[in-house]
Specification:
The complex is a heterodimer of chains A (372) and B (615). With 372 residues, chain A is an all-alpha fold. Helices cover 71% and strands 3% of the residues of chain A. Chain A has one domain. In chain A, helix 6 packs antiparallel against helix 14, helix 11 packs across helix 13 and helix 13 runs parallel beside helix 15. Helix content of chain B is 38%, strand content 20%. In chain B, the strands form seven sheets. In chain B, strands 2, 3, 4, 5, 10, 18 and 19 form a seven-stranded mixed β-sheet that branches. A five-stranded antiparallel β-sheet of chain B has the order 12-11-23-22-21. Chain B has a three-stranded antiparallel β-sheet with strand order 1-8-9. The chains are: A mainly alpha (372), B alpha+beta (615). Chain B: One of its GO terms (cellular component) is plasma membrane.
């Protein structure tokens, strides 16, 4: 029995392997998605229609995941520059022909589907930077850092001017993470950090009014309790009144009585925290942590530089999602439109996220089984 | 593949990457730690704070205003009630086409342009599910018209609200007063918590005086609301305690009778039971309809009432101040007896005028009396006798004795607007005019003229004191209130006042008997007009108080004088004389002679009370 166990793989595992899927990652994602449905049911006011629509999106996103998992990552690597260039081109097109939605120009109407190129860049930018570093000796030299910086800055800038600060943040985060993982030297990093601090007032100067307001609102939400501060105040009330054990599923008064705005999208975490309490929230954070760590383990076990860098970046970008969203909902960070991954109602970011997980699975499952 | 120049060191790169991943893992864990700490702070440390906020968010306290207490007369006739007032309300979210709805509604109920405009303005400030009143106080016809067509108007409803109503109309306006919308001054005065949800408050009269009893205690309900403020359900309810139902001592039948008797004149009739101070009727004419004020009187109607020549808004019974004239004589006579300046037997000759020693001025009587004693001086109303008596008494003793009958001070009746009249004295004149008291002023004070002013209620109270031989009770309108569910009447105790005491009881008879002679002896001033055919004995005194000063030698000719310069006609009296059950004071502004005009009115009131009502 003991001896055969290693050789004799269970049929389930065989199927997973054939499909290039990673069980721990798949399990974590599925649990999160399932929990997301439970919370969405409550947050939407028991709206089955919304649930059904989200179900279709999840199915679609799973399809994308499966598809990408089948593609060996060395193909992705070869396509990286073209994917990146196409993305930048689309961003430029959005700038001129894009559709307005909620005060920002993000969408490109391709007839059949409406497409958000900025979302696409969340994958294309880390792919490009990883491609750039893949064959170069690491840690990178200064000249290479500058090139990589430009590769990140161009799409990030294009997205920021739409304006879509949240996505710009995630896109540049994904790119910068690759640079960090590539082994940027600490003194360079510190120098750049100091430069960023020095540039902060300049950034403030270039910020849109609404963005400044959001920062100010974070610092003092009570200054505008019915305007910009309303979200944060109501969200904090929802979370705080949940206590340790929560008010129970479907019993969150803040969300059920509609005091909490954006409760099925950006602020769904507050609904969850109100109804399931601190215990529920810690379980959720643990699940996220598990998925992130699993992604990083896949990165460490990857066999070439491109795969390593990309896998590491995608995993931590997933973390940035979680952190920026929860940080906003609990009043630690300004209000930026970043959904809670795998939880929030909506399809765009879901597809991107699942695509990233598909890439991670591809990286993990297409390892060449070499003798150590 | 690009040509590589420097060589890649795969082993080293892998170690570098691993180090970076470990750093990121640590950072991720750390940041999750911060998020968890923050959540712990919100959900554990600040739990009670946020829990309260969340509770406040969803729970709203709504006031349930108490129904106002009813007011009845002594026989249980309703004087003030709460009647449903129907108003048309529109719930905007249920109306598809507001303009069309309004246009069609206007064909059924009368809608003024201004009203519609106001409605549109109110519409903007309300949430779509909140009903907005379109027309207040629907008439029965409009109500019926709408009821028939109701199906055509989704979102339009008839809402019944309670509104104060005074079924007796103008009859009791001065007694009851009225309620009106709470204004800013009142808002500053009242406990706003007790008045949560209440829109109206007593403005005058009984409604004002007994506001605290009539109002009741506000109730509350806790309701759950959502973020839009829509009420979802009632969580908790503490019903309101209705206001007290009050029973007045007034008898509506007598009130109405007195009103009819005084009809056409401006004046007042106040009748009370001398034994206990219960006011039986209190009429001030002309009057107004208090119902006008409940829903907010229109500016033009109010202006008309306010500027009307005969001042219908003025409550003459309590606020009107008149010279008492000769009605004061019995009391002045009593003062003379008590102070020993005259006796029942003493006689004097009246030439028709009186002069003070060392003074040439003649104080004229209204007629020639010849030889008079106290009895004839009261019965036939000799001024000269009382000039002489006043002179001998002096202002100080006279003023102080009159004060014991409550003149110059408020009776303290349970209503609003009562005035104190004026009891002149040496000190008063010094303080007011900084002048000495002149002996001539004592003379005219003795016949109730000059500075002297009394209210009709004060005269009624004075009459009661005479009727009760000095016993005094505070006049009051409230008899009691209805207690518990059984509807039992809990009576209020009458409040005795310091009695008027004289050294010899027969002094009372020595002024009371002449008062009977006013009506029942041939030459009594009210004999022919009121006393001669009475079925019971009445004691009274006529009075005619000058509005217009005549010169020493001038004759008063009623026909030649303009109406507003005519004398006020007064009469005070009680009956039956040997066992008084009613005391009445009548004042008819510019009525002319007290004997001819006022006395018959008092007689009719007494007849109605003693003969018609009691039988």
């Amino acid at each position: 029995m003991f001896h055969t166990a290693a050789a004799e793989v269970s049929p389930g595992r065989q199927i997973l392997r054939a499909l290039h899927l990673d069980l721990p990652l798949l399990g974590g994602i599925s649990l999160l998605l399932a929990l997301g449905f439970v919370v969405l049911y409550s947050a939407s006011g028991e709206n089955l229609d919304m649930l059904q629509r989200q179900g279709v999106r999840v199915a679609l996103a799973f399809g994308v995941l499966m598809l990408l998992a089948q593609i060996p990552h060395h193909h992705l690597r070869q396509w990286s520059p073209w994917v990146y260039l196409m993305g930048v081109l689309l961003l430029v097109l959005v700038m001129f022909f894009g559709e307005m939605g909620k005060g920002a120009q993000r969408w490109l109407d391709l007839g059949l589907i409406r497409f958000q190129p900025s979302e696409f860049m969340k994958l294309a930018v880390p792919m490009m930077v990883a491609w750039y570093f893949a064959d170069r000796p690491l840690p990178p030299r200064l000249r290479e850092l500058v090139v990589a910086g430009v590769v990140v800055a161009v799409p990030a800038g294009l997205i920021a001017q739409q304006p879509d600060l949240g996505t710009a943040l995630l896109v540049s985060g994904a790119g910068l993470l690759v640079i960090f993982l590539a082994g940027i030297r600490w003194r360079v990093l510190l120098g750049l950090g100091a430069l960023a601090v020095a540039a902060a007032p300049l950034l403030w100067h270039f910020m849109q009014d609404y963005q400044r307001r959001r920062v100010l609102t974070l610092l003092n939400p009570e200054s505008d309790p019915l305007g910009a501060g309303y979200h944060i105040i109501q969200s904090k009330i929802a979370i705080g009144s949940g206590g340790v054990y929560g008010k129970g599923w479907l019993n969150g008064t803040q969300s059920q009585l509609e005091f909490l705005p954006e409760r099925s999208t950006d602020f769904i975490f507050a609904v969850y925290a109100e109804e399931f309490g601190l215990l529920g929230v810690l379980v959720l954070l643990a699940l996220y942590l598990f998925v992130i760590f699993r992604g990083l383990i896949i990165a460490v076990r990857a066999q070439d530089t491109y795969a390593r860098l990309l896998a590491g970046s995608l995993s931590v970008t997933f973390f940035i999602y979680v952190f920026v969203n929860t940080g906003m909902v609990i009043g630690l960070l300004p209000v930026v439109g970043v959904p809670l991954p795998l939880f929030s109602y909506g399809g765009t970011s879901l597809v991107t996220l699942m695509a990233a997980f598909g890439i991670l699975m591809s990286i993990h499952s297409h390892r060449r089984l070499l003798a150590r | 593949m690009p040509v590589r120049q420097p060589l890649k060191n795969h082993y080293q790169e892998k170690r570098l990457f691993l180090a970076r991943v470990v750093i990121l893992m640590v950072m991720v864990t750390l940041l999750f730690g911060i998020v968890s700490a923050r959540l712990g702070h919100l959900q554990v440390a600040s739990y009670s704070h946020f829990s309260t906020l969340s509770q406040n968010n969803r729970v709203r306290l709504e006031a349930l205003p108490p129904p106002r207490g009813l007011i009845f007369d002594r026989n249980g006739v309703v004087l003030a009630e709460n009647r449903p007032a129907y108003q048309l309300e529109v719930t905007p979210e249920q109306v598809t086409d507001m303009d069309a709805t309004l246009e069609q509604l206007a064909r059924i109920v009368h809608l003024e342009e201004a009203r519609i405009e106001r409605f549109r303005r109110m519409l903007k400030g309300k949430r779509p599910f909140q009903a907005v009143p379109l027309k207040l106080n629907l008439t029965d016809e409009e109500l019926a018209n709408f009821a028939v067509n109701r199906h055509r108007f989704p979102g339009v409803d008839v809402e019944a609200r309670v509104a104060r109503h005074y079924p007796q109309g103008a009859s009791l306006a001065h007694v009851l007063g009225y309620v009106g919308r709470i204004d800013e001054r009142e808002l500053a005065r009242i406990d706003t918590q007790r008045y949560a949800g209440t829109t109206h408050i007593g403005k005058l009269g009984i409604e004002r005086f007994y506001e605290s009893q009539l109002h009741g205690h506000v109730g509350f309900q806790k309701v759950e609301v959502n973020a839009q403020g829509r009420t979802l359900r009632v969580l908790e309810r503490e019903p309101a305690t209705p206001g007290r139902d009050l029973v007045l001592s007034l008898d509506v039948r007598l009130q109405r009778a007195a009103e009819e008797i005084l009809d056409g004149y401006a004046g007042a009739i106040v009748a009370m039971d001398p034994r206990n101070g219960e006011v039986l009727a209190m009429v001030s004419m002309p009057s107004f309809d208090p119902n006008l004020f409940v829903h907010g009187i229109s500016r033009s109607v109010f202006q008309e009432l306010r500027t009307h020549r005969r001042q219908p808004l003025f409550n003459r019974a309590l606020s009107g101040q008149y010279p008492p004239g000769s009605t004061l004589k019995p009391v002045v006579g009593l003062a003379g007896l008590e102070h020993g300046v005259t006796t029942a037997e003493r006689t004097m000759y009246s030439p028709g005028y009186y002069t003070l020693p060392n003074d040439t001025r003649r104080y004229r009587d209204w007629r020639y009396h010849g030889t008079v004693n106290l009895d004839r001086a009261i019965a036939q109303s000799s001024d000269v006798y009382f000039y002489d008596l006043g002179h001998k008494l002096g202002i100080d003793r006279m003023s102080s004795f009159l004060g014991r009958f409550g003149l110059g001070e408020r009776t303290g009746i349970d209503s609003t607007g009562e005035r104190q009249g004026l009891l002149p004295s040496r000190e008063w004149k010094r303080a007011t005019y900084n002048q000495p008291w002149y002996p001539g002023e004592t003379l005219i004070t003795a016949i109730g003229q000059g500075y002297m002013l009394t209210t009709p209620l004060q005269l009624t109270s004075l009459t009661s004191t005479l009727a009760m031989r000095g016993e005094r009770v505070r006049p009051h309108l409230l008899r009691g209130h209805i207690q518990g569910d059984g509807g039992e009447l809990a009576l209020d105790e009458s409040e005795p006042l310091a009695p008027v005491q004289v050294s010899r009881p027969e002094y009372w008879d020595q002024v009371r008997e002449p008062m009977e002679h006013v009506l029942h002896r041939a030459r009594g001033t009210a004999h022919s007009s009121a006393g001669q055919d009475a079925a019971y004995r009445i004691a009274g005194k006529t009075g005619t108080s000058q509005v217009f000063g005549l010169g020493e030698e001038e004759e008063y000719d009623e026909d030649e004088l303009a109406m507003h310069l005519h004398d006020h006609a007064l009469f005070i009296g009680y009956a039956p004389a040997d066992d008084p059950r009613i005391a009445v004071a009548v004042i008819v502004e510019h009525g002319g002679s007290g004997g001819r005009v006022a006395a018959p009115m008092a007689r009719k009131v007494m007849d109605y009370y003693l003969l018609e009502m009691e039988s």
